[in-house]
Amino acid sequence: MKYNLRFILIACAVFSGILPANDRYPAMLQKASASVADYVHYTTVGQLGLTVTNFGVLGEGYNNPNQPSCMYKQYPDNIKEQVEHMSYGGLWVGGMVNGEKRVSTAVVDGVFDYGAKGFEFTDNGDSIVERSSIPTSKVYSPYAISHQDFMATFHDQGAVVDHKPLHIQVDLTSYAWNYSFTEAFVILNYHIANIGSSTIQDVFVGIWADAAIGNMNYTSIYEPGGGWSWYDNLNGFDESVFDPIPEDDFIGLDRDIAYQYDDDGDNGYAQSYIGFSFLGSETVPRAHWDTYYNQWMWNTSSNLAYPEFYLPLTDEERYDKLSHSAPRHLGDAAYTEEGYPAAAASWMILIGAGPFGSAPAVADSSSWELPPGAFIDVAFAIITSGWSSDSPDDNAARRKLLRTNADWAQKAFNGEDNNGNGRLDPDEDQNGNGLLDRFVLPAPPPSPKLHIVPEKNKVTLYWNNIPEFAEDPISREKDFEGYRVYARRKTSGLAAEWTLLASFDIENQFGYNTGFDYIRIKDEFGNPSYEIFGQDTFYYKFENRNLLNGWPDKNIFAVTSYDQGDPSTGLESLESSQLENRMTVITGQQPIEDEMTGVGVYPNPYRVNAVWDGDGVRERMIWFTGLPEEAVIRIFTLSGEPVKTIEHKGSVYSGAGTRRLEDGLSANALYSGGEHAWDLITDHDQALATGMYLYAVENKATGFIKTGRFLVIK
């Protein structure tokens, strides 16, 4: 492991006063004001799970198996698709102060300690703020830009050994969406302000990344002796042209995607790309800046095979890397077809852009200045994709999907600037405010708010009608067309992809014109009605029957919305994501109110390694069913020796205490309330032995007791 998050966390604790300074973390690293290092936020709305911190670092170093560093897909249909892409990454900002080159970095090769040179940004004492543009989200805000915004502030004026700061403050806002065409990238928008007393000239901004493509399902680094190779990756720089509207007069711009891939694909488990792209600046015109690319081997300051691809150790070298590209070597056998090192290794990535400033130093000059109090805005994208072909070699065809995802990230940044020429043309001002609005995408209606009632062998889905009133952000039209109902892992087969259960659309000139009569809630007279659950009103319902009770990962449901599309522009109908309101449901008997005539155990007999069990001893499970709302379950041997006592409360039961239910998709599942799982671990923390056992279920409301027996076979 190149980085160890434990070092960072301990250092952050030192900063905040939680831990005292010691010889490893000397007192000079302590801050005058409390630090709130936030490293637990990661994007969840799309398929790219990216950890974002409030001190400039991206990723979490593969230290936490329950938190993605830079994972795509984090909700896979196949475990071969669940690939990690980056250990750590972070912001680099360089500039000239009084003729001296300075660079402030979030993280560099070999730096483990918060407060060391090369780890130079400090949070401002506030945790990350999250907000969402999804109306049904718990963090909904009318000011949100994307489905999941993270906002953080940090600066380079902390106590860092041997570091000359630029004296800048950075406001980072990351944007993530859950549309199918946006779920593979995250945009990082940086607002960089000069908070010092000196002018900064020729600012260059970049993203450094310790990219590493690997799949935890192939050889997990969390298992003893596990882990994939850090040293079998190759890099490249895609300079192909993206032209959003080929028929207009603007010829488009280079994509400039710095990318990495696993050279051999790890037997199909790591056939994926990570890319980094500079999207643009709202404060400096496109004609005044360029993009630059560099790479070097991990923590290697000199490289005899590739001497020009070296690790920069000083601010001067880092500034030069930010502001100049490494040379390409075309036609050399030691290099790829595109002119970059062809030896697989642990290659770092640095993509830089500039120069930036608030004003030119001299009229018509390429030199720019950022005086005290001034700021710049720049935006990068982290992009992922699987290979687009089975070619064993990196090429344009295999990078097709990476380019497509990068193009959507660029379109998101361009916003109303449909052709990407950097200005607002007369026909592009969609909302008529006279401003070029960035981060605007064509969008389907949002998914409706979903409520699910689980019962024995069935679920009933309820949803509201909010999507029917949504406006498309581009056309400003209410173009809602219909709803689709999906299930996942509905059968016992291996396929995990979503299954379309039903589709309903309004009666108009589009679609199948099914209408909503079948799903509309009606009163006793057949008139449209509604159901209220909590504070929410629902107008539609759909029943799904013949489901398996007790399965921890079988029944996942979602209801999406889709629009009419725009035939005039050729835009196909867009659909909201199943990820937006997906719910895992474990069906079973609801709480009973009689004298518990239906109390029982299943499966009975229980055979170890039942089809729903996991691999470990603590991942086994049986279910008690037919329970009242509150009950005490007691298990005994045939001789009457107590084995286990379980307290059950149906209204709050969430599978706690049973690892098979606490892990994975079942962690936030809905339960019926009349059933309770047991992992066959006794009160003495021992696995249950083969044999016959007795149980007694006591209704806490009435005192009535129901008894029975079950058999365990190993």
Q: Work out the helicity level.
A: under 10%
Uncertain runs with pLDDT below 50, 5 residues or more? 1-33, 491-495
Summed over residues and divided by their number, the pLDDT gives a mean of 89
Distance between the termini: 40 Å
Question: What best-fitting shape do the alpha-carbon axes yield?
Answer: globular
Number of strands: 39
Largest sheet: 10 strands, antiparallel
Number of domains as seen in the coordinates: 3
**Rg from alpha-carbon coordinates:** 28 Å
Which strand-content bin applies to the residues?
Answer: 25-35%
Contiguous helical run count:
4
- From the helix content, strand content and strand pairing, which structural class follows? mainly beta
